[in-house]
Specification:
Elements: H1 5-15, E1 24-29, E2 37-43, E3 46-52, H2 60-81, E4 99-100, E5 106-111, H3 125-142, H4 160-173, H5 176-181, H6 183-191, H7 194-205, E6 211-213, E7 222-224, E8 229-231, E9 238-240, H8 242-253, H9 271-285, H10 291-295, H11 297-317, H12 330-347, H13 349-357
Antiparallel strand pairs: 1-2, 2-3, 3-5, 4-5, 6-9, 7-8
Helix pairs in contact: 3-9, 4-11, 7-11, 8-9, 8-11, 9-13, 11-12
Bound molecules: adenosine-5'-diphosphate, 2-acetamido-2-deoxy-1-O-phosphono-alpha-D-glucopyranose and magnesium ion.
């Protein structure tokens, strides 16, 4: 898609800090992320991804500080192990991974992997396997980091109780017309509320190890080439739990329908993709998982899907201030599709448990 002239100038101004003056070719918006502004740009016949981080959502200071710690460690790790886990993030002439635009939004320049692609729906169990393996290997790297080095870029990001309270606030203060339209979905939300107490109990016991995790392991946060799969979208790398990273992969790899599909009958948890995901993610991590993490992988999955349904629904009720949307009921459609997937997970829990047990 073509971009606004003001965006063009803003991008040009940031690129000058990387030593690229007057050398930009085309600029087009890129990808289907819900949060940041992402562009594919051409500079001197090379292609790059340019990103403007959403400063209304992320704590910009925490995020830029985390990137410094993360990339220094990542570059050392990749060199030592002779592998690539994530595309390169370039430093400006001032040796920064981000440069701020005039509105104070952190901007960055990433390598655009030639002939790469990302998927919103997994086209095959093989793709699900490769993506899970990429997240598994990335987690093996993250296990070398200590939690005190990182700050929270979004407060309470994977706190189910905080998300539930957000939903209750949205019910109180949300748009009344939207509330009426969302009646059925709100009813579903209330009927599954026990998931919150179940997961909160486990979290309060403090039995899950605190680790640095990715925290946004959806399928389109993996870039594929013919031979490789690399992890992107590192803005939420911070203290978290593996059970939610596992869960978000299940949420986004296993359905044959997009996250915003309204074809509820077609939404299901594909067991062959679930199997491929377990194989890809749990093999590299097998010796590094805590028994309590293993025990609660499926609870984490149930919780992530439910919480995602609540997050979309809350945003719908509050007038779409968080996620990018393409039409007025987009967030409501997204929420309903999450509830359908949750239902499928609950219906097939025994088969799912059996598959999981063969990998842990
Ligand atoms: P958001 O936080 O908005 O989701 P992402 O970092 O995930 O931002 O980027 C949005 C989309 O842009 C990704 O889903 C992917 O399609 C594309 N993208 C981002 N970085 C790269 C990259 N380095 N190479 C190829 N595609 C990328
Ligand atoms: C957002 O940024 P993106 O599009 O990769 C969101 C995730 C949600 C996801 C739902 C920072 O991910 O938490 O699970 O949308 N990221 C943030 O698709 O809120
Ligand atoms: Mg993303």
């Amino acid at each position: 898609m073509e971009i606004k002239v003001s965006d063009y100038h803003s991008i040009q101004q940031i690129l000058s800090k990387y030593g690229y003056e007057d050398s930009i070719g085309s600029i087009q918006t890129y990808g289907s992320g819900h949060i940041n502004d992402t562009y594919l740009i051409e500079v001197l016949d090379n292609q790059y991804i340019f990103q403007r981080v959403n400063k209304n959502i992320f704590n910009a200071e925490a995020l830029t500080s985390n990137y410094e710690v993360l990339y220094e460690a990542l570059e050392g790790y990749q060199k030592k192990h002779q592998l690539v886990l994530s595309p390169r993030c370039f430093q400006s002439q001032q040796h920064n991974y981000h440069e701020q635009d005039k509105h104070g939004s952190p901007c960055r320049l990433l390598d655009f992997v030639n002939k790469s692609t990302t998927y919103d729906i997994s086209p095959s169990a093989e793709v699900s396997h490769k993506a899970a393996q990429a997240f598994g290997r990335f987690q093996v790297f993250l296990n070398t980091m200590t939690t005190t080095e990182f700050q929270e870029t979004i407060a309470n990001f994977h706190d189910p109780m905080a998300r539930f309270k957000e939903f209750q606030r949205a019910l109180l203060h949300g748009d009344s017309e939207r509330k009426a339209k969302a009646e059925d979905t709100i009813r579903l939300a209330s009927s599954h509320a026990s998931i919150i107490s179940e997961i909160s109990n486990v979290m309060q016991q403090g039995v899950l190890p605190k680790r640095i995790t990715h925290n946004d392991t959806k399928l389109n946060n993996v870039v594929f080439t013919d031979t490789d799969a690399w992890v992107i979208d590192l803005d939420t790398v911070m203290p978290g739990s593996i059970i939610f990273d596992f869960g978000d992969m299940v949420r986004t790899f296993t359905s044959p329908e997009a996250e915003d599909s309204s074809d509820l009958a077609a939404i299901q948890l594909r067991l062959d993709h679930f199997e491929a995901l377990c194989r890809g993610y749990l093999k590299p991590l097998k010796n590094e998982l805590h028994p309590m993490e293993v025990k609660h992988l499926l609870l984490g999955t149930k919780s992530v899907i439910y919480v995602q349904a609540l997050r979309f629904l809350s945003d719908y009720l509050m007038g779409d201030t968080y996620y990018k949307t393409q039409y007025p009921s987009h967030n409501l459609t997204r929420s309903a599709s999450q509830f359908k997937l949750l239902n499928d997970l609950i219906l097939n829990k025994n088969e799912i448990r059996n598959i999981l047990n063969s990998y842990v």
